[in-house]
Amino acid sequence: MPLRQILLRACLSGGLALAPVAGSARTDETQAARQKAQSGDPEAQWRLGIMYLLGRGAPQSDIKAVEWFHAAAEQGEARAQFSLGYMYNEGRGVPQNVGEAGRWYRRAAEQGQGKAQFLLGPCMQMEWGSPKP
Length: 133
Description:
It is built from seven helices and no strands. By secondary structure, it is mainly α.
């Protein structure tokens, strides 16, 4: 399995289970998540970002996913910080920037986000997110 798929699965396995969306079956849930996200709830912002990333409950848009991940990440939502790191690492919705990816992985790892901690070792070896001397 390519590293890209492994990272995407790791990103998405942070506690959010999204079943396939059939038509408007989840319209109420999506609307509720959107309202919470717009009111500043960082967990809802992260969840809405996932919806945009996957195109489940919202039209697929890497750019919108990044916007919601960033809003949540700035408020300290570790899963959003990890997700934002993934987006920068892969260049999805933002220009690829492994240094920025490393910085977001580091912020998530500092809060105990296990997947980010796991990735931080290789990131440090490649000098992602580490200050230059």
